[in-house]
């Protein structure tokens, strides 16, 4: 699957569009009287993604996706409007349906074990966290509930394979996602934290049906602006997700009752005892029939909530071998 973000501006009867797709930018200029269908054709010509493969996620007219014959002038697009597209090239779709003969090992993490202690108590980073607590604005979706633990979830490669080819977003959803969230919701308030922009988070949650599911609620989303940069001796500057941003805003959540799932360990370098590195969900077309990670983690979360008063006393790296009576 590919992601495109399109910046649109109206100027003297024309629509100027910068399509950001697959790491590249494509500049388009269309007449404002041209249609959405003609916009799709222009995108196809520049990117190679066929019009019928394109899903323009947040291009709306009165709350609905516009028909292809809708003129761009009717969209009343504001200066700098960003349009997200999902779609796949034909060759990517063909490749996705063919099982490769060999799969290289994917390494997408840093060996940060020796770095954790050296950064966790640095005054400069604690000051950055306090600044986020003071200045970062959280849009509440639902209110926290009394006596609930906190589960913080990454999106990409944790809940969703955002790189593989697919025609529909549901094909890239990690198996058992809704069952997992429903089960976790019994004991945990749930927060989504992604190292992307808020618009993209909102669209992914809509695409996966998370934002409207009747059996669980997300209390809020955090985006890349809530992260901080830290310096490590071995790897230089890296961006991380400090849970102190949440703890500073919500007194009921602390290190004792919070757990974060992320496929990249360095994201919880500031809170190593509260992070669980989940196995990355990649190549959805090959793995969605066999991936049961969320199913097994549901049981772990339930056991943890019922039997542990302090999550920092558990080694979450050994979650699959955790037994309540081992504390």
UniProtKB/TrEMBL annotation:
Enzyme Commission number(s) of this protein: 3.1.3.16
One Pfam short name: ubiquitin
Domain of life: Eukaryota
Subcellular location(s) of the protein: Nucleus
Catalytic activity: O-phospho-L-threonyl-[protein] + H2O = L-threonyl-[protein] + phosphate; O-phospho-L-seryl-[protein] + H2O = L-seryl-[protein] + phosphate
Span of domain FCP1 homology: 144-304
Protein name stated in the entry: Ubiquitin-like domain-containing CTD phosphatase 1
Native species: Nicrophorus vespilloides (Boreal carrion beetle)
Gene (name only): LOC108557544
